[in-house]
Specification:
This protein is an alpha/beta fold. The protein has eleven helices and ten strands. The strands form two sheets. A six-stranded parallel sheet has the order 4-3-1-2-9-10. The chain has a four-stranded parallel sheet with strand order 6-5-7-8, sandwiched between helices. It starts with 5 loop residues before the first strand and ends with a strand. The structure holds D-glutamic acid.
């Protein structure tokens, strides 16, 4: 048993979609969450910047004595995970591999769409990893740079969100599954499902939560944890959006990364 907390980071509120799934599956684990709101958005930054920001976020979490780090951000997973894994000894989990494990086991998924930030799509990480590990798979990518800023703003269920998603999804061929390759996108899941009713919409947070439950040395805590949520800049809409998602009031603290 390891009673140390799990550390997670994202550029903002998106990683809370992963946080929510982890809380549901292993509620007694204490989580330290860092939203790097000062540097949002990550999706339009260079690989070098994403690596530097990821290192700072990991150092911040290691100072809080976490036992593992979840990169609850598609952009940082696709562009920094390999680099940071070579630097740090602590186990670091990104959103790609647990999702690929799921797809591997579901043989019927052969035509897969990926929607993500510009940086993630540019890195081609999903396609490379999927094709390296699964034979005869077709991958269709689409960058959706407006969605993460809209999610930060709380525009997740209005007319503009509907129209934007319709536009981004319109050119996909028939897909068996669509990966939400940015952790902000599960906030739009209802609209996406409506737009693609015959396609399985994959929320990477669910896959990470399952991975954690079976692979991480969990704590022996008998009660639900009191988590710590830090933001690098508190001048944002985080509380409102997190309330929409988690249906609870959270307390935020300033994190100096
Ligand atoms: N939630 C992030 C991701 O999964 C980052 C979005 C952004 O900062 O642009 O890619």
């Amino acid at each position: 048993m390891d009673n140390r907390p799990i550390g997670m980071f994202d550029s903002g509120v998106g990683g809370l979609t992963v946080y929510k799934e982890i809380k549901e599956l292993v509620p007694n684990e204490k989580i330290i969450y860092l939203g790097d709101t000062k540097n949002f958005p990550y999706g339009s930054k260079s690989k070098q910047s994403i690596i530097e920001l990821s290192k700072k976020n990991i150092d911040f979490l290691l100072d809080k004595n976490v036992k593992t780090i979840v990169i609850a951000c598609g952009t940082a997973t696709s562009q920094a995970l390999e680099e940071v894994k070579n630097i740090y000894k602590v186990p670091i989990i990104g959103i790609i591999q647990p999702t690929i494990e799921y797809i591997k086991n579901k043989k019927s998924l052969k035509n897969i769409g990926v929607i993500a930030t510009r940086g993630t799509i540019r890195s081609n990480s999903w396609e490379i990893n999927l094709k390296n590990q699964i034979k005869d798979i077709n991958v269709y990518n689409k960058e959706c740079p407006l969605l993460a800023p809209m999610a930060e703003e709380g525009w997740v269920d209005n007319e503009i969100a509907h129209l934007t998603i319709k536009e981004y999804l319109k050119d996909f061929p028939k897909l068996e599954a669509l990966i939400l390759g940015c952790t902000h996108y599960p906030l739009f899941k209802k609209i996406i499902e409506k737009e693609m009713p015959n396609t399985e919409i994959i929320n990477t947070g669910e896959k990470i939560a399952k991975y954690i439950k079976s692979n991480i040395d969990l704590s022996g805590n008998k009660e639900k944890s009191k988590d710590e949520i830090y933001l690098t800049d508190t001048e944002c809409n985080f509380i409102n959006v997190s309330h929409k998602l988690l249906k609870e009031n959270i307390e935020i603290m300033k994190g100096n990364v």
